[in-house]
Structure formats: structure tokens, C-alpha cells
Amino acid sequence: MATSYSKVGEMTTNDGVPLKVSLQRSQRKLKIWAFLLVAPLLLFIIVSFIIPVVNMSLRGVENPQVHTIMPNVTKALARWEGVDLPDEATYAALVLDLQEGRKNKNIGKVASRLNYERSGMRRVISGSARKAVKLTEGPYKKQMIKIDKSWGDVAVWSLIKRESGQFTFSYLISAVDYRTNDQGNIEAKPENKQIYKALFGRTLIMSFTITAICILLAYPIAYLLATLPLAKSNLLMILVLLPFWTSLLVRTTTWIVLLQTQGVLNDVLVWMNIIDEAGRLQMIFNKTGTIVAMTHILLPFMILPLYSVMKTIPPTYMRAALSLGANPVVAFVRVYIPMTVSGIGAGSLLVFILSIGYYITPALVGGQSGLLISNMIAYHMQNSLNWGLAGALGFILLVIVMVFYSIFNKVIGIDKMKMG
Amino acid sequence: MKKLLKLSIIATAIAAVSLGSIAQAEETFTVVSWGGAYTKSQQRAYSEPYTAKTGTKFLHEDKSGTALAGIRSQVEANNVTWDLVDILEGDAMIACDEGLVEEINYDEILAAAPDGTPASADFLGGLNGCFIPQIYYATLFAFNDEMFPGEKPSTIADVFDLEKFPGKRALEKIPAGNLEWALMAWGVAPDKVYDLLDTEEGIALAFKKLDTIKDSVIWWEAGAQPPQLLSDKEVSIASGYNGRFFGAQVNEKQPFTIIWDGQVAEIDGWVVPKGKLTDEMKAYIKFATDTQRLADQSKYISYGPARKSSAAFVDKHADTGIDMKPHMPTSPANFTNPIIKNAEWWANNKDDMSERFNAWLSK
Hints:
The complex is a heterodimer. Chain A is mostly helical. Helix content of chain A is 70%, strand content 1%. In chain A, α16 packs antiparallel against α17. Chain A starts with a helix and ends in a 9-residue tail after the last helix. Chain B has 15 helices and ten strands. In chain B, β1, α2 and β2 form a beta-alpha-beta unit. By secondary structure, chain B is an alpha/beta fold.
């Protein structure tokens, strides 16, 4: 076809411009218009979402402290082999960097950074900087070791050399409960310091559990919503949406009132003589509390997509299956459920991804056993101030979500999804 | 129409400029603190008298719980909005070393004592470069009298003795304090606690003791929780800040008794974020940390003033008329067996200890 056109000569518009060009021109205008219309949203997403995500992920590998604040030591250590203590020139570089860092008041950043890797490095760096200001002439090696005996420890120098690069993997290593030992080998952290792997596992298991419970609870409700007469289904819809519109904190604290040991549910159980005063159940500030509260909060995200899919399924299909001889169970399983898969998929994806990053509810009702990985990220952002580790944990969480998303895409297909 | 538009733009511009200058004439300080009764005591002792004197206005934010994170992010973003921040000594040291807060020339900025003693000799400690100490407060145990009709707990060892003194315990969800108490419960003397915590065995011992009560602990995170947990009888013994327990005893007539044994004494005070040490701020700091003002704060909350010379001015509670001296953590009767919190030790070991503590909690 294309060749035949070129033989005949190009088609042109009235004013002699080739049709192709003219068409492109008018389409370009439309494209620009379309782009301008979405530009504010695009800009908003870039500024408020993509840049922060990239920035935080980068913090998980960035390591500027030693590199920029102790440039002389960094340079001197580059040719150090790491067997014996470094030479006099390195100690001289150390004194220079400490003095400079003390003057610019940024040596504390190095101290904080190295303290994450080895307890006591804050004292070594800050204390030495305070005293190194007074040093005027060499030889520095002896004087520095006198100021703090840690400077006579090869392991301390290895640590500084290891963390003197512009980028580091130590946060990512630490985020999966590993560490680099004094010999420079990566090994598992001692048992009494392992926490993140278990938390990642718990977060995934809890998210799956919550998603599964949501499917079980939401399916009948969505079915009722889609099949009841309008008046009744409207009322039911309001019952679904009212809690959805209620503040998250209100709903979470309500569960505390209901479930705590001196709470409503326990009182009722005691009053009915099902349990005695001493046997009050611990239903909140643990895993149970987290699952109950989060399931309640995320339920509408499952009901609504399911409902929108079920609404489009003509009731005649089921009737046809029944009239062709299937019993109700077979008809439901083989005809109805397959048609709702896109709704289940959409709802599961929403609930799963929301719950994997949930943090307020578990913080309030999770106690110790119900805490999730996001609570640890918040802890490192606000309390320990180890933003590098927070970035690394967040990055790993993001990768996990992406992996699940792509598995989901392979199995169900994102194009088949209906969000409601 | 266009003229009207122009006119209105000019008018708005003039209004904005003049408003701006008015705002400048009336200085406003954003002061960050711990909230609740503590912020109120600072308002009544420091900022309200200062407003009456100079017209300076104060905005109070209750963000001290995450003060260091706040200062760091504001300084890193080059957008410092806090003028004065209430912070613990250990965090102040870190902020100072990282260059996030202003260094203080103590004898120049702080007022001398009434007898002329320079400030640097009058404060009880904590003058380490950037930190402006205000109060000594104690983290300690208190119990609900009604839950122990017979023998009452009186030592740290009693707190860890679930058989003799049954009931749940409320502890703060941080390693600081709990590790020290755990060692004290083994019988370690308060001044040997940090030496022992410097060793692997010492840390293991502390966690071993905490293991014995772990299943009976409710962990709290906000200072308002322990008095609440005690009065609800959810726990029988709770750790908490002495000022909060005092408030519940006095204002709400709660039947609480404080165990002064093993109180963890610590200094709390101010830091000035980078770039905020203006002449106006210096004037306010001089006013708010003089001998009389620090003593005034103890009229509203039972925390000990951080100046030696203030002790003589500690008076009666402003609302109830109770003599405040016996309620000060620093009064001799209460200060018999204290742990002086080693802020430097914690600055060095907080990362490591928190990691262990969190791992221990999640098991």
C-alpha cells in the first residue's frame, strides 16, 4: 500500500501541503493540548512523589560524610593495605581533617555516621577532634594514639577506609540483618541484633492475611450490593461508605475501646460468664489487634472494585447455567466467580499494597508483636535519625512491592483490572 | 477596569509591606517543647512574664519528642523555623557536634547569680558548648497505693519482683533507663552501672533481668501514659517522669506513691538552632534562665532548677500552695540513691543499644 502511494505521488490538502504533514501538524496541536492538560498533575507527581522516592532511595546508598569532611584521610587511606597501622602521613592527614572539621563544625556528621557502624565512634571522632585542635607539630601518630587508643586499632582504620567511598552498601546490608566484620567480610548479625528480616516476613504474611480476610468478607457484601433491589442496596452502600469517610484515627481508637482488656467486648464476655475476670482476653496491642483494625479500615477498598465488576454481570448468565443443569454451587464457582476475577484482582492489589506500607494503625494497636516494617522506617526517620538505613529499608520495601506487582501482572494482567 | 486592577494591586502591595513591617516590629519566637503541663509551666514562668515586659509573642509547638530530627531536617533544608528548642542533654551534644545548633558563650549570654557568681559556676552541669540547662528531672517508678494494701514496694529490686509485688509494669519503650534499672535490680551500685554496661556481659545481664518481667510489661511512649495506666489499674507500677506523677497526685488526687530509689536524674534544657541566636533571642535567654525565673518554674511543676542559686527561691505550688521543696528530685531526701544519667555514654551507644532493644522486643 505504502509503495503504491509514493508511485502515485503524495496526497495533498487544498493549499498544497502534503496531507501527512498537515495531519501531523494538527495532531501535534492536540498532543500539546493534551500534554498541557495533564502537565499540572505530572508536575505534582514528579515534585511530590517521584523526586522524594528517588531522593530517599539514594540516601540508602549515599555516603558523603567521610568522603567530603575528611578528604585528606580518604586520599591517604586509598593506598593503605589494611594490615598494619597506617603511616605517619595518614595520621597527619587525620589531624588536619579533624582540625578543619572542628572549625567548620561538621565533624559531628562523620561521628554520627561511623557510630552507626561501630558503637563508640562518636566519642572517638568528636573527642579526638576537640583535642586535636591543640596539636601543632608531629609526629602525630603517637600523639593521636595517646589521645584515643582507638587510633591504634587497625579495625577502626579499616572501618574508615570502608566508609570513605562516596557510596556504600552498608545500609542495605544492615537492612537485611547482615554486617561487615572487622576483617571486611560480610556476615550475619548476631542473633540478638537481627530484626529486619523477621519484620519484612511478618509484614508480608500480615498483608497476605489481611488481603485474604478482606476477600472473604467483601465478596458476600459486594454480591448483595450488586443484586439487592435499589432501595436496599443503597442503604447497604451507605453502611459501607460511612466508615470509609470516618477518620482513620477515630476508627483505630474505636477498636481500642472495644477490644482492650478492660474494654467493651471483654466486659460483655465476662458478664455473660463465658470468661472470668482473670481470663480477660488480650485482643489488642498484638497481631490480632493489627489484623482486625486494618481489615476493617481496608475493607471498602475490596468491596468497591468487586461491586463495580459484579454490577456488570447480567443475572441471566447464572440463570442460563442453572437451566442447563448445573447445580447452584457449580454454577457459582464455574460461571460467576471467573467473571469477578478482575474485581478480586483489583481489590487484592489495592489492599495488599496499602497494607504493606501501613504504619499508623499498627503503631497504635500493634503493641510489640503487631509492628510492621514501616514502623521501623518511621522510627529511623524520627528517632534514631539513621536516614540512610530508613532509605535502604524503604527501597527494599519498594522493590518487594514492584516484584509482587509484576507477578500480579503476569498472572492476572493489569489491563484486565477494574478499579471501580 | 484596568486602572482599578492596577490600583488594587498597588494597594495590596502597600498593605503587604506595612503588615510585614508591623510583624517585624513585634518579634515572634517559635518555641518547641514537650507539651502538656511542662509547656504550661514554661509559659507561666518564662514567656508570659516576658510578653508582659517586652511585647514579644510566643508560638508553642509540642515537637520535642522528635526535636533532633526536626532541627536536622530544617537546617539541611536551609529553612529553620524554630527559634528555641527544648531538648535532652545527650541529643543537644549530638546537635552541637553536627553543627546544627549555635554555640553558647555561657558567661556572656546567661545572667550571673544574684551574688555575682558567673553563670558557668552556678549551673549544676550540662554546660557543654551549645546546651542551656533549665531543669533536673527524674525518670522513676511510682505505684498505685490501692493495688498494694499490704507491703509497699520501695526499691528497684521490688519493681522487678513480680511474686512479692504482683501486677503489670509500665516501662518506656526505649533502652535508656531500663538497662540501668535492670542492673540495679541485680544489686549493682548506681555509679557502677555504666562501667558494667560497657562490657558485653553487663548488657547481657541487663537483658536477662528484663526477660524476667517482659511478659508483664506494657510499653509506653508518651509521658502522659504512665499516670493514666496507673489510675486505670492496667499496671501496678509504672516508670515515668516525676513531674507527671506529681501532677496526678496533686491535681487529680490520685493515690500514687513515688519510689525515689534509683531515680534516673537527667538535665533538660534549650538549644538555639543555627542562625537563630539574634540579639532579641539572647535577651530572652538571659531573662528566662536567670536565678529567679528558673526557680519560678518549680511553682508549676516539680522539676528542680538547674542553677545552684535557684534552690533557695523554690517556693510553694502556685495553684495548691503545697511546699515544692520535698517534691524536687534534687532535694536531699529524694536524692539518696540516684542514677545520674550518663548523656555521653548514651550518645555513643544509643544506636547499638536501640538495635538490640528493638530486636529483643520483637522476639
